[in-house]
Every structure is written in structure tokens, then in C-alpha cells.
Amino acid sequence: MGKAANLAAIGSIADTSLGFRNRILNGGMVIDQRNAGAATANTISGYTLDRWAVSQSTTGKLIAQQNAGSVTPPAGFKNYLGVTSQSAYSVAAGDYYMIYQMIEGNNVADLGFGAAGAATITISFWVRSSLTGTFGGSLQNNATNRSYPFTYTISAANTWEQKTLTIAGDTTGSWETGTGTGIRIQFGLGVGSTYSGTAGSWQGANLISATGATSVVGTNGATFYITGVQLEAGSVASPFERRDYGRELIMCQRYARRVGGDGTNGGFAGGVLSDGGNTFMRYDQHVVEMRVAPSLTAYLGSYRNTSGAPTTNQWAANDVAAGSRITWGSAPTTIPLASCDTRYAQFYFNSGSTPSASVVGRLYEFQFGPTAYIILSAEL
User: Fold this and answer.
1) Are 295 and 377 in contact (CB under 8 A)?
2) What are the helix (H) ranges across the chain?
3) For the chain, how far is it from start to end, CA to CA, in angstroms?
4) For the CA atoms of 294, 300, 306, 307, what is the dihedral angle to 10 degrees?
5) What is the C-alpha separation between 183 and 140, in angstroms, rounded?
6) Are residues 191 and 90 in contact, defined by beta-carbon separation less than 8 angstroms?
7) 226, 125 in Cβ contact below 8 A?
8) Other C-beta atoms within 10 Å of 72: how many?
9) Calpha distance 52→48 (Å, rounded)
10) What is the three-class DSSP state of 80?
């Protein structure tokens, strides 16, 4: 193989996932630990797909979902994040509707924002909307006092179009380089004048979108779909960096991890019954070191008892030694963390009553229903 062929082969390899060109996590919208492809409630103002969040100044105006509308994604992709407007809402000056991702400072520290020589970056993505016209978004720092509003044009309705934006790095302001938010990228879905500014330059203000941008929430049933989001150093958009599913999942689990809710009677092996027999203590090692010590949110579901019938909010534990099951009469409404750090979590389940045939100190496998799950969150 000649020198030219060798260089071509190296270039081909560089287009795959050997590095970390793309500072966006889950840019292909493949990981969805919280919803597993289901639509979010229209009241959501928080995370949808992993690392992607929705913000609504007034809830109830949009629904977000992986592969909403079941359209064919652009070539080379199988997933996208879809947003659907729930009404024809007239955006007021102080309103904002958007999807966004906050990139950890550790992952963009090399870009040198906030100092002379800040790197130029390029953003690329695929987008499809039922609306056409000029759309907007912005980049921001953690303090939201440095913003770069940008625009892009959707020319044809209900057609995937690839967009590329090149932005000179900000040489002033304060930019996080640790575990906080390094860069926030956001796509406006309807933003009022208070949070809109002239596109194309860095400004010392909290700006979410560009002045005059199309409002998705302004049209009932309007759709906005996006995938293949990439933010990289340099002035040229390279091919979308494809990381294998396992690696993408692990990278997302630094910020959030789902336990349970896999459609079966999930197990939590390795806990002991204590505190008079009504509290089950569980020690859990994170699969990857989390960004900070996580918080815990429990989503209660149903447990299928020994006869197979679903019982709402029923939790149970298997006595490992005796090979028998004990069942609480009621499920916990919350599952508090006893203690945790970035490497482990210890939490407990308290039913408020002592289950029958329980033995304090004995090892039990804690089980919960097919729709119940826990999210450990260390999100930015």
C-alpha cells in the first residue's frame, strides 16, 4: 500500500470513534434511560433523552419523545429527538421554550474559552420541521452572562436537512473547566424578546435564541426533529462521530443511571433487612464514576406477586437463605439515599410495617415491578 493509500486509510479510521471529537453526548439520540422511547408528559421541564433537556417557561406547551411521529431518520441514523407543539401559543417577551444540552467543563477545557486564542468550533446537526423559515439557538457559559445567538434556515417542510455553523471561540468571560457546565448549547422552540438577541456575535447577556426566529410552539401540532448533533474544535464539520452503544451508554451514566423498569420483575440483590424488619438497606456500586454524588428519584410501578397478578405499588423481597418471598403490605413512597458519593450509593426502602416471615439481618434480594425504576442523577 502506497503512502497516499495509507493516509486515506488513516483518514477513514479518524472518522470512527477512536477519539472524542464530538463534545456532545448522545448526539445520535440513541440512549433514553428515563423514558425508553415513550413520550414525556407535556408538563416536563427537565431531561428527556439522556443528556438532552427541555425547558418551558409555562409547562404544557410541548411533548418530547425519541422518534416522535415515527418518520424515517436521515441516512446513517436510527433515532432522533422529536418535539411536538401542544397548542398555538403566542410567546410573550419573557417566555422561553427550548431543548438543550449542558457540556461538562472537563470535556471542553481544551477549547480555551475566556482567553486569547480560544478555539473556533463547528456545530453540525440534522433537523426536520413541519415549519420553514429562520430558526435560532445559542451557546452560553455556565453563568449565562456570555451568549452567542445563532440562526439556521429550514427550507423545506418535513424534510431532513443538515446544518453547519462555525463560531469563533469567546475570548472573554468566565468559562467552567471542571465538573460544572462548560458550554450550554440550546435550540429555541419559541423565545421571547427578553432572551433573544442579534445573531452572529458573542454578547454579555442571557440570550437563548436569535431575534426573529421561528416559534415552534406558536403552531398547534408543529413538529421539530433533530439528530446527529456534533460540536467539535475547528472550522470544518467532520463526519458525525459514531461511538458504539455501550460506550455512549457508559458516558451518559456519568450523569444519570437507571435501575429497574426493564419490563420484568427486576431484582436488587445484595441488601439486608434491618431496623426491626421493615427497612431494606441496599449498597450499590455505580457502573462508572458519576460527575458528583447523585440524587435519587423513585418511579413506582406495579409488582407481580406469586400468583402473577399485578399489584399496584407492591414491592417484595426474596429470602435468599430460605428460598421464600416476603411481601410488604405497602410500597415506599420515596426511597431515600442513606449516603452516597461519586462511586457508590447506599439507600433504603421502608414500608412502614414489618413484613411477615422476615428475619432482621438476613440477606434478601429486593424486587420491584416491571414499570418501577430508580434514577440516580448527577446531571449538570
Assistant:
1) yes
2) 3-14, 245-253
3) 48
4) -160
5) 6
6) no
7) yes
8) 10
9) 6
10) coil
Residue 252 backbone dihedrals phi, psi, to 5 degrees = -70, -30
Judge residue 6's burial from the number of C-beta atoms within 10 Å of its C-beta, 0-12 exposed, 13-18 middle, 19 or more buried: exposed
What cell was used for 8?
Answer: 486515506
Query: For residue 33, what is its C-alpha cell?
Result: 434511560
3-state SS of 121-133 is: EEEEEEEEECCCE
pTM of the complete model: 0.88
- CA angle (195, 199, 201) in 5-degree steps: 105
Q: Specify the long-range contacts of residues 10-17, CB closer than 8 Å, at least 24 apart.
A: 14/238, 15/238, 15/239, 15/241, 16/241, 16/242, 17/241, 17/242, 17/243, 17/244, 17/247
Whether 223 and 68 have beta carbons less than 8 Å apart is answered as: yes
Nearest one of 188, 149, 196 to 170, comparing CA atoms: 149
User: CA 99: distance to chain centroid?
Assistant: 10
Contacts of 270 (CB under 8 A, 6+ apart): 282, 283, 363, 365
Structure letter (DSSP) for residue 111: G
Question: Tens-of-pLDDT digits for all 380 residues of the chain?
Answer: 444 444 333 343 344 445 799 999 999 999 999 998 999 988 889 999 999 999 999 999 999 999 999 999 999 999 999 999 999 999 999 999 999 999 999 999 999 999 999 999 999 999 999 999 999 999 999 999 999 999 999 999 999 999 999 999 999 999 999 999 999 999 999 999 999 999 999 999 999 999 999 999 999 999 999 999 999 999 999 999 999 999 999 999 999 998 776 666 555 545 666 655 556 667 788 999 999 999 888 776 554 444 444 455 445 566 666 665 555 545 554 566 667 899 998 876 665 555 555 566 666 666 666 667 778 899 99
Nearest to 239 by CA among 122, 127, 139: 122
Q: Are 23 and 123 in contact (CB under 8 A)?
A: no
Q: Which domains does the chain have, with CATH numbers?
A: 3-253 (2.60.120.260), 256-377 (no CATH)
Asked if 241 and 22 touch (Cβ cutoff 8 Å), the reply is yes
Helices (H), 135-258: 245-253
